Amino acid sequence: MNRGSSSNESSGMQMSRRRHKLPLITCTECGKHTVGEYEVKTDMKGNKGRIFFTCPARKRDGSGCPFWYWEEDYEKIVEKQKNKKDKHSESSPHLAIHDEDTARSGFMQVSHDIEQIVKSNFEKLNKTLQNLFKVFCFLLLCMPLYKPCICQPPFGSDLLS
């Protein structure tokens, strides 16, 4: 996952490879972003090489989203969230869980996008049909002008008989 130039990378902290293959969850504080996994690259208070997880909305000065945990604490959060989901799905499987909410949100966005495309294409089709109707009306109005020409025999056909 390439994170570009986030504030965390510019401070000597970079995304790391997962050691324990912990899943990257949606931030439990703001609920808007997927948290990122980083490794301390500088020797700050003996923490070089330690893994931490933080929300991309958290700024280096600590403002923004408060989600920030060392790997061992993050692992507890993930486990707690997993247990909560397992318990929730056992007790009431018909209720929506986090992943279903995410899917529903994505479905609603796609549905809205499709609706906009259909509406746009319908408007274009409507304009095209209006133009065709105008051409058709014009041709109907012009038909009486051409009728005498169509009904008369060609010039000189009486000479052939």
UniProtKB/TrEMBL annotation:
Keyword Zinc listed: yes
Domain GRF-type stretches: 27-74
Molecular-function GO terms, alphabetical: zinc ion binding
Record keywords: Metal-binding, Zinc, Zinc-finger
InterPro entries associated with the record: Znf_GRF
Keyword S-adenosyl-L-methionine part of the UniProt annotation: no
Name of this protein: GRF-type domain-containing protein
Lineage, uppermost ranks: Eukaryota, Viridiplantae, Streptophyta, Embryophyta, Tracheophyta
